[in-house]
Specification:
With 254 residues, the protein is α/β, with parallel strands linked by helices. It has a single domain, classed as FMN-linked oxidoreductases (TIM Barrel, Alpha-Beta Barrel). It has helices at residues 3-14, 29-41, 57-67, 103-119, 138-143, 154-167, 186-195, 209-218, 227-231, 236-253; strands spanning 17-22, 46-49, 75-77, 91-97, 125-133, 171-175, 200-203, 222-225. The longest helix is centred in the C-terminal third of the chain and has 18 residues, at 236-253. Bound molecules: SN-glycerol-1-phosphate. The site of SN-glycerol-1-phosphate (1GP) has 14 residues, from strand 8 and helix 9. Sn-glycerol 1-phosphate binds at residues 173-179, 204-205, 226-227. It is an enzyme of class 2 (transferase). Belongs to the GGGP/HepGP synthase family. Group II subfamily. Pathway: Membrane lipid metabolism; glycerophospholipid metabolism.
Length: 254
Amino acid sequence: MGVKDYLLKRIAEVGAIHMTLLDPDKVTAKEFKELALMVQEYGSDALMVGGSLGISEGQLDEYLSAVKGSLKIPVILFPGSVANLSRYADAVFFLSVLNSADPYFIVGAQIQASVLLVKRFRNLEPISLAYIIVGDGGAVGYVSNARPIPYDRDDIALAYAYTAQLMGFDMIYLEAGSGAREPVRPRMVSRVKQLVSKPLIVGGGIRDPEKASELALAGADAIVTGTIVEEKPELIKDIIRAVHEGGMTRKKRA
Ligand code: 1GP
């Protein structure tokens, strides 16, 4: 089974899945391996690997080849640039920053990456992703020259998300930015989910089980946490459980 089908199957099973984002630029290779194995043990459904700054293909290869044999959950690249591809991953989020003001981040980097995927990385499964930056935006908002959607403008987020669905993206990601002071608001998630049927990923600034559960209940099909795993790994078990419980509750209500 491919990675996209696995994610869809897990979403159907548990209502909402948890994905862990690790940035190789923020941890050592040893920490990376320990954290990856820890989140797998606690039930995180996939490992995303990436960052907006400072990762080379050589570093990715080093970190990922070290975990390749011991991880059962899929490793999905979450590239900050065309240099962030590695043959040791299972899939890549082929992402377009839909609300960037610079066409390079909407389609320019993607045409460069497409050539690499065909010529050098045939084993990577591309999963197309509409990446929509909200609120704080964080480093990714700055680097990709995004015009972040204000936290309270559900109508604009909805317009982008529905556009992404019509354009045929596999998945849609509402991103407040890594380390955001405030995550995407549940009301925005719920309004987008009412109209859009594509899997909805939500991340950025989620630091506790309560917020993770609230967003899963509101309609997020996948919750991504990154910073908290690096800073307070003791919380991650409860966050993963909260996502799955929130998802199951929403599934039962539907
Ligand atoms: C960033 O949404 C992810 O791309 C994760 O954000 O680091 O704030 O958990 P955090």
